[in-house]
Design brief:
This protein is mostly beta strands. It has one domain: Immunoglobulin-like (Sandwich), CATH 2.60.40. The chain contains no helices and nine strands. A hairpin with a 5-residue loop joins strand 2 and strand 3. The N terminus is likely disordered.
């Protein structure tokens, strides 16, 4: 019988959010990177045409980064997030401005 209180090693949770401009335009094809603050391990996912991204990561604390293009700056960035087994850490959104 499976003990439902135990999870396989390496199983974590999900981080998701959106990347958009300060004007509200969805920014597709942007690389979002989750960096494990303890190990430095990096997990990458590209945004869809609607600016959304979803990535599965092992349990841990993560800092999120987004790819910038010429003349862009991050106006709003999500705080570091702790992902536990089975978590869905949603609304980890970025807002970018053009200089």
């Amino acid at each position: 019988m499976l003990n439902t209180g135990e999870r396989p090693v390496g199983v974590g949770g999900t981080i998701s959010g959106n990347v958009r401009s300060s004007g509200g335009t969805a920014l597709g094809a942007r690389k979002v990177t989750a960096v494990n603050t303890a190990s430095g391990a990096r997990f990458e996912q590209s945004t869809a045409s609607n600016g959304g991204y979803t990535m599965q990561v092992p349990a841990g604390m993560y800092r999120l980064e987004v790819e910038l293009r010429a003349g862009e700056a991050v106006a709003t960035q999500p705080d570091p997030t702790e992902v536990n087994v089975g978590d869905l850490d949603g609304q980890r959104d970025f807002v970018l401005t053009v200089r």
